[in-house]
Fold each of these.
Amino acid sequence: MKLKTVNHIQLEIVTVIDTPSHLEKEEIASFIFNNQKEIKESKEDVFRCIEFAFGQFKHSGGFVVLARDTQKMNNPVVGCAVVNQTTMVGYVSENILVYLTTHGDYKEREINKSLLEQTLHFAKGNIDVLVNLNNENKSLLSEYGFTHSYHLYRINRN
């Protein structure tokens, strides 16, 4: 679903209803993988997150907010937010904002702000965000009411 266009940046929400193709999912995964800053997750894990958002697994769902540059050939992705729905209520938030990423050449255009605004508008229920301590989006998240509530401890078993 196409949303607003500001300064040649087109925002759109993509859900399972839009039946994104493998090629479209690959474009989103490549964009996120190539523009990650703090934590480099494998492209396979990024792709799996996108497939989860598009309901490819049992009890999965969510959505993706894309920002595309309409002045460039093929309208490339220049910003992206990926939300996975947890199907839980109360004890864990209903949504996890997994990725909020903008291409380095577009940082000055406040694309992350627009992506976050659309995420907050479209998501139903509470939203968790896992951020690295040095994440550049921490102040933006605070500005929109996110609070630092927990520390995450993880054991990687692979």
Amino acid sequence: MARGYEIVDRNWRCARGEIDIVARDGACWAFVEVKTRRGRGAGLPEDAITPRKLARLVELAQIYQTEHALDSVSWRIDVVAIELGPQDAVRRLQLVPGIGLDALATTPDSHDIGPLRRPRGH
């Protein structure tokens, strides 16, 4: 990941589920869900973050904090959305920090990370 994140854990698991990436962004802890799609037949990658999925991510982040004695830290849920094109070329790689139920659409605070291969005319 870019933007100065310090990766603390990858694929952290507990009985309730998995967090793809646990990272620190300065003093703030980021619990990152990575979603990948090949083509748009199933929608955008970030469309997979439903209110139910978001609630599960919050629950997992809270369990992680309890297990690691992170009682009073600042934290958030981030999403990395990846769209792949032909031969799995990355067409879009976007970080959406601090998602909430109304923050799944691209916002001014979302960041493209990494080189993007956009289709011509876009």
Amino acid sequence: MRRCAAFKRCISLASAWDGLISAAGLDRFQRDANEEEKNYSPADIGFIAPRVLELVYTAYDLRPFAEDMGYHGEPFRWDEVRRAQLRAELDACYARLYGLTRDELRYILDPKEVHGEDPSTGSGQVSLARHSV
């Protein structure tokens, strides 16, 4: 029973992660992904859950969440290098789950790398609307 609750929590967490992706300005890909409900396999959950847990459980006030996920240890230490690695692994996982091409993922992660600086501002910010297909 507890394991089932943890899987449900993980799926909710995966949905929350999708929300973070959307909040990062990736609404076009989020909309496309939401057109069909995403079903996470046990392998997907097994990959996503521990990484998200490590990113989220960094303070004792989140202990109930960690225990629901089946983790009973101390909060994870905040380590910028480790967190960047975890985020990169999750980015790659979600790119695969949503069927993104390498160029689409490059654009999501750094639009100016793909299209250069926005000539009107010189800021490197590229309008998603202008470049969306």
